[in-house]
Amino acid sequence: MQWETVIGLEVHVQLATKSKIFSGASTAFGAEPNTQACAIDLAMPGTLPVPNEQAFRDAIMFGLAIDADISHTSMFERKNYFYPDLPKAYQTTQLEKPIVGRGHVEIELADGSKKSIRIHHAHLEEDAGKSLHEDFHGMSGIDLNRAGTPLIEIVSEPDLRSAEEAVAFARKLHSIVTSLGICDGNMSQGSMRFDVNISVRPAGSDTFGTRTETKNLNSFKFMEDAIALEVERQIDLIEDGGKVIQETRLYNGDTKKARSMRSKEEANDYRYFPCPDLLPIVFDDDYIEQIRQTLPELPDARRDRFMEQYGLSHYDANIISGDANVARYFETAADSDAKLAANWIMGELSARLNADDMSIQDSPVSAEQLAGMIARLKDGTISSKMAKEVFDAMWDGEGDADSIIEARGLKQVSDSGAIEAMVDDVIANSPQQVENYRTADEAKRPKMLGYFVGQIMKASKGQANPQQVNEVLLKKLNELL
């Protein structure tokens, strides 16, 4: 039987506010455990929450960016459940009147096709704390620093039909929120987390199958792998005569295994009721329009501008513009040569960042340093091979391109007189190879140049300008014909 996959995403986006959604406690990452949770975050008796306006502005910005309906009245409910990292024993969230209503996000797939993914809604809520399971001798520790951090939870319709589409959608959301500046997008720190709802149904059916939810995926790769694993599990289970159970599952990216966590709750299990401490918040048209006027350049517009302004191909512009941080890095590095900058960012820099599991914000090679190296490559000071050595040295913290070139004596020999002398010397000391070249068929001669070029580069310790070497060598050998 042929099966169709049906996927919907719930995406938790941590907003880049300096303080929490209902208190003045800091949201800075990396503080000592339990040093950034105040009495309001813990719902201590006598405390009252005070809404953080910036969180609302950020949520409205997102809604405008996806052409969504913006609710003029926003209300909060309490979602009641007990978990060790939830200090209040309830989460302040939105159910009946989320701040962002229906919208859509357009994705582009590898084959160039496009698809519009519907957004059901996006709501504001507070984050929980974090359970820590390492170094506690079989016990768990609780860090409440994250409790009360503002989130928007983006809920898609079940419009995705493959892992490729799900990842493309997640990447597009990442691009949008980082472009807006409402999230730093650092998934390793939990700034974006994905819950993936997955079901399968016979191809051609219009009835949804029973879905499972795989929670808290914090990388695109983990999402792709988790979807593939769960789809295979559900199909095998059904074809063997079993039934899929609606449940919440966890995926371990290190072991590449998933397990059941708990049966899936329904909304009534959480006993939602309006938060008695928070009045409805009303936005008028002027307030929303004011925010609309502050919207920065969005990913699709940036891609089109990169193609026009820098002459990038659609493919290159799509990749470079997709991440706001990469786009900013590129625009600084592009001062020397846009195409070379794009090639180095998508090639060597990307490979090194991926190998070390780093984001471009943490790159040891700054955009200014890369621009400096590209300038020396473009003006002929160094060759492509030397550029690789310079890049490695910059990555290791040895300074900028000019200082590395000077310290290592990497300056390329471009003096025509010096190159002619080296070519003459190699030709004079290679009589047999010269004779072979002279008597060879014209079609075979280009392949025979490699010997001479190799000897010249050896004599110059790899510092002769390869283009000049080839031009001078070809001219002198042809004079001997």
- Helices, by number, come to 15
Sheet having the most strands: 8 strands, mixed
Approximately how much beta-strand content do the residues carry? 15-25%
Task: Tell me the Rg in angstroms.
Answer: 29 Å
- The H-and-E topology, N to C, reads as EHEEEEEEEEHEEHEEEEHHHHHHHHHHHH
Low-confidence stretches: none
End-to-end distance: 70 Å
Helix content: 25-40%
Shape: elongated
Family: Belongs to the GatB/GatE family. GatB subfamily.
InterPro entries: Asn/Gln-tRNA_amidoTrfase_suB/E, Asn/Gln-tRNA_Trfase_suB/E_cat, Asn/Gln_amidotransferase, Asn/Gln_tRNA_amidoTrase-B-like, GatB, GatB_C_1, GatB_Yqey_C_2, Gln-tRNA_amidoTrfase_suB_CS
Keywords: ATP-binding, Ligase, Nucleotide-binding, Protein biosynthesis
Subunit structure: Heterotrimer of A, B and C subunits.
Give a quick summary of the entry:
The chain contains 15 helices and 15 strands. With 481 residues, the protein is an alpha+beta fold.
Notes on the structure:
The chain is of the alpha+beta class and 481 residues long. It has 15 helices and 15 strands. An eight-stranded mixed beta sheet has the order 5-6-9-1-10-11-12-13. A hairpin with a 4-residue loop joins β12 and β13. α14 packs across α15. The protein is elongated. 35% of the residues are buried. The mean pLDDT is 91.
Task: Please name the defining characteristics of this protein.
single chain, 481 residues, alpha+beta, 8-stranded mixed β-sheet, 3-stranded antiparallel β-sheet
